[in-house]
Amino acid sequence: MPEPADHIRAADRLADLLGDARGAETVRMLQWLRATSQPAPVTSADRPTPSGPARIGVWDVVDTGSGPGLRRTDGVPTAEASTWSTVRDVLGKGAARRVVLLGESAARGYLLDPVYNPATSLTRHLDTGNGPDYQCVDLARTSLSLGQLRQMVGDLARLAPDVVVVFAGNNWSISAYEGIHPGRSALLAGALRAGGYRAMRNTLLDEVLLPQVDALLDDLRRLRDEAGVQVVLVVPEFNLCGWSPLGPVDAVDVPMMPEKALSRWYTARRKALSALTEGRWHDLADLAGEMTGLDGGLSPVPGHLLGTALTALGRHAAARDAFEQSRDSVCGLMVKYLPRTPRLVQDRLVAFARAHRLDIVDLRAELCRDDAPELPDPDHFLDYCHLSHSGVDRAMSAVARRITDGEAGAPEPTEPRATAGRTGPGPAEPATAGGREQAVSLVLAATYNAFCGQPSAVVRRYLDRALAAHPPIRAMLAALDRLLARPGPVWASPQLGPLAADPNAALMFERLSDYRPHESRLWTLRDCLADVAGDSGSGPSGGARPDGAPARPASAFELLDITSTILGVGAVRNYTPPRSYLQANLRETEVRLALATPVDGVLRVTHRHRAGSPDPVRLTVNGTTVGEFTAGPDWRVTDLRVPAAVTRGGANTIRLSWPGPAVDNATRIREDAAALGRGEPPYVLPLFGELHSLTFHPVAAEEG
Amino acid sequence: MNVVGVSAFYHDSACAVVVDGRLVAAAQEERFTRRRHDRDAPLYAYRSCLELAGIGPADVDLLAYYENPRRKLSRQLWLALADDADPGRMPRLDATQPERELRERLGFDGPFVTVDHHEAHAANAFYCSGFEEAALFTADAVGEWTTTSYGVGDGDGIQITGEVPFPHSLGLLYSAVTAFLGFSVNGDEYKVMGLAAYGRPRYYDRLAELVTTGPDGQFRLDAGLVLPRLGGPLYPDSLAARLGVTPRLPGGEIAETHRDLASSVQLLLEDLLGQALEYLHSAHPSENLCYAGGVALNCVANSRLRRRGPFRHWFVPPAPGDAGSAVGAALLAHHRADGDRHVRRLADARLGAAPGRGALTAVLTEADVAYEDYTGRESDLLERVTDLLVQGAVLGWHQGRMEFGPRALGGRSILADPRDPAMRDRINQRVKKREEFRPFAPAVVAERAADLFELDVDSPFMLETAAVRPGVTLPAVSHVDGSARIQTVARDVAPRFHALLTCFGRRTGMPVLLNTSFNVAGEPIVNDALDALSCFVRAGLDALVVDDILVLRAAVPPAWRDHLSRAADRHAPRVHNDSYSFFL
User: Fold this and answer.
1) What's the rounded Cα separation, in Å, for the pair A458 and A525?
2) pLDDT digits (tens, 9 = 90+) for B371-423
3) CATH homologous superfamily for B164-315?
4) Could you give the ipTM of this predicted complex?
5) Does residue B238 belong to the interface with chain A, where contact is any CB pair within 8 Å?
6) Is B11 annotated in the active site?
7) Which of A62, A244, A693, B73 is deepest in the core (most CB within 10 A)?
8) What gap in Å lies between CA B362 and CA B364, rounded to an integer?
9) How many CB pairs (< 8 A) connect A and B?
10) Which fold does the domain B2-157+320-338 belong to in CATH?
């Protein structure tokens, strides 16, 4: 080891040369070039190979005497093991045809599993009693990435499958964000500088995502050609009409754009929502078009509004295009969104299947409405992409048909567009879940949708469906209402036992064990539960004792959930790390205040607006303006008196309406390009204002 | 003037707030996020400390960071080049990241200063010591280029006068042997310290051959002992042959050779520290020593060296490691900016939040769990708790503000009767689920400490060891060598805890309790009352005391244990770390 004295001086000088932002980027590029200029070992994620260890997912491949089987690997940490199918051991297939199901949470039957899932449905549909025997092997994994899927496909030949069903795609456009190396981030930064966020997005999708999708498809084709395996591709569908980008919190409205355009966009949005409320569909369509013109198709809002308008006007094909535009707008934008398969991936799957004669089941056709085949039926979904009992049943019925058709020779792939409709009933009678079974899954869906920030209209629809399916489910709703209304973690609630009685419900509520719902953002669910299960007497909107709140709060309390949100401290819906304060990326920030009775008080707001807009911030309580204040570039504290007359017992809604953005568009793009250069995620979103704290001080406590 | 100090992005991130030169709040991020040794920006700790200080973000005048990123980059670049490291495995090398990230994530736009890492350590000790002047000594694995520093502190501040450069490091030496013994680097060194008492130092000479001492407090480690690199074990493969000992695999059986090696490295560390302190005293002949850095957590060495001299008065802060550097950075930055220095000895490490019992009673009431409320009846509470302790109960004790630093000092403690010979094994096996050789510590009323232990100083932060006096029988807190790591509890600092010890002493003649941190293996110490409730249930404690509320295990619904047991299965397992993580 060299004597370091001289080396320290030299290294100090080197650090001086490389110690600024430019130096950091220089070092990063050198690191990456050095790393990628050397021959690297080919990993199974890069290229499928059958020569690795005899393991697939969390199973070891074993010789059973009747062909290869699987044995679940011991010692896999529970957190990892629980993401995989619960299958333990798989016997040799003997004379049966082995059908392997690969896929993501939709393939696992999220919110249904283990009571029901695609694998059990497929088994039922294949088990006709007339044809050959089938052995369905469920190897699906929640949150499966594109790379993991490729690895599994590469390892699959050793299991000697006859059929592989790939029900995946929803995670792929998010997977593309992972492992953005300097070469690619430089590409993205260049695209951002040259053409803004739209160019960055297109570059990511075209030059990062699609090549990975193509590589997977090549792997599958090779599996078919080299191992003689029938490959069935399932093209995922999205709950286009039943998923809203208009949630009051945790939503992405629009990426950053020039200030005047942003102002006009929000003006149009406000008018559009009025038009929506009043059913003025033509006005709504016009306003949505104006918004899209401004945002360049990068916002999920106008497409959804336009789709709603066009649906109301009976123009279903056009409505589908609008909803798809809404769904796809955020893909590749490097903001957080829930899984979905964008059109370009759907089309890629279909085109590849046609070109290479792979079998395909297009859920756009299988899950459509009977009265409007261009649109998916929301009843087939439990959220954005996970399927209900009926959705799973339809999807797997079609897969079973494709498998049994495949035995007689490869058919032409079905027409992918939704206008083709379904191809007829499956060979087995559709499985009908019991009323309670359906109702439980719908209660879970309501909970999950609320957790995802869906508006009350969406959440309420699931609760209503649950009650319609099985009226006694009201008891479960009341238990859930009490769970949310009382303080403490989920594990300590007496309601956990009855709520977790069903295996699929246990999975959800026990995973939330440490969660403290009374500090959470599940207000929408609480509002809805109060409406439908109000007899529990604890609902925040109408109940007598909301939220465990004292009859008269004795002291000030914080209203921001920065320290409790499960998404992390001060989470912003991009990939930047969390902050110790809340950043408002929507024009309005909504906060709830639970009170037992109307009470005088003071709202103390600790706020900042980095640009120091001369326009005021307006604060309303339950729609009544209680004050305005000017936010500056430094943190300030403002006290606003809240008369008891504007408050009410139950949940009160506080809204802050921010002035224009605190960071201008050119600065945002420059900073985001620089962040990409450093290997950090871009911010992308507008920043309207910031809150460090929002506390309510009852006047009695103030004066006392 | 309000100064915030921050340590972050390595391990044990923390935040501290100094108001007009007074330390008013300090907290570690791990207590809030429940991720042990959390290294991320201290977001929760920042909010908590501001709230405790009664200030908002607009009131922060200065933010002080606990190391110099550019000098750290220098060492990182040198190491990467010297090690011919695989660039694909290297972290991002960006000296601008700490300031940029802290400004953004804490929302801070004001003046930002950096303090050299060992300055922050030294300041943590000096400004909390109450000494007018003192010699300063720091030792850890590495900070920027420095592993060991010598200096002096007085009314003008602190001055570092000598340093030992990386990779010659007492911390790395100890960590290399820690890894060799199958424990985790940067966290399990205290296990080696505990194991040392069970062995004989028969590998001392072979270890010592690998260290060369020089003038002016310098020393050099042989490349055959420590292998600083970006990945892989911290020690070279050849070390096994040099020592004649087979490395222990993580979780493997602990053999006599392992105990003896632990004993040897402990003795070698003490000798090297002794030589360093001799040098320091010759350079700065003060009676007072301020000592910090991760190595200062080795309380066995501290006590032996203090008794050996030459310094008569020692001060080691309650969080001498990197978390405490947030305190040091804030206090030093304040002194430099304001010119004013408060000479005041830190007597109470409870610098964190006091979340209160409100949520707990609401949960208990909702679940129909019986509890006893002693509000306004403290003496009844203490008698009741003493009853339980005398009957052999192990109880969780959650009172007031949270401690800062790795030791539970009566704010977030598990307490038990130290006279019970079976208690140590019971707690190690059933409650804490940890190695049987690890000792527990006693808390004792300060005025009786010298009667029961051969202790000649106060030890409010549990950083001193001393022999249990002959005739005193405290098997649950006596180590195999008859020593104990002692916390002395003063009446004016922790009146309720002192009163409990006194009550227990009245009943048993022994005002001493076994005091260990309120957590289970792999988790941080509990923060709020609901964390305490969860830990109480999972650890199977006999009782829980939160402020004036007492809950007995018999009242706990079985469903709680079932739910929490299943939830615990889902937690990711703790990752063993034998790699060189000091690059970051």
Assistant:
1) 10
2) 999 999 999 999 999 999 999 999 999 999 999 999 999 999 999 999 999 99
3) ATPase, nucleotide binding domain (3.30.420.40)
4) 0.93
5) no
6) yes
7) B73
8) 6
9) 175
10) Nucleotidyltransferase; domain 5 (3.30.420)
